[in-house]
Amino acid sequence: MHTRSTFSLRRTAMRQLLVAAFFLVAVPAIAQIDPRIHKLCIEAKDYPGCVKAQSSGSNADTRVITQQGAAVVEGNSCPTGMAYINGGTCQQVECLSSSGHGHEYPLGGKDWSCPWGYELRLGPSTARAFLDPKCPSIEFVPGWRNTCNQK
After folding, report:
1. Per-residue confidence (pLDDT) for residue 118, from 0 to 100
2. Higher pLDDT, 80 or 151
């Protein structure tokens, strides 16, 4: 005959076993995520979706938006202070003290500038590109703020 305390102990042991099994499966998967991507996605509501989107890179399928007969791949403008980097994504632009290596690709030669002694660098924040009806519906080239300023 089992007492209530024996049942409770078995139940606790089973929970601990399940938690341990979860970590044995989940931790290796988390360990394979690029730390930069993890930092970008940690506060996202859909962490796995964010990681998948950030990890897919330039090989990802792109979504085409059609507006007024023109195809626009993921928009044609970035939020203020951000540059287009590809796949419908914009990334923060920063001016950092010069390291002597020049501006980070793809920012150099675009419509960005820094004070003397500083270089353009991509920062940690990202955002989705959006459709600005004032800018042309043409291919959005990495490094630019929007297609209005592209040359």
Report:
1. 93
2. 80
Three-state secondary-structure class, residue 40: helix
Torsion of CA 10, 16, 21, 25, to 10 degrees: 160
- 63's CB contacts (< 8 A; 6+ apart) are 73, 74, 88
In angstroms, rounded to a whole number, what is the distance separating the alpha carbons of residues 97 and 82? 19
Note the pTM of the prediction, 2 decimals. 0.52
Return the DSSP state at 151: -
* Burial 59-81, CB ≥16 within 10 A → b, else e: eeeeeeeeeeeeebbbbbbbeee
Could you read off the pLDDT of 6-54 as tens digits, one per residue? 555 566 666 666 555 554 544 444 446 777 776 776 666 666 666 666 6
**With 0-12 CB in 10 A as exposed, 13-18 as middle and 19+ as buried, what is 123?**
middle
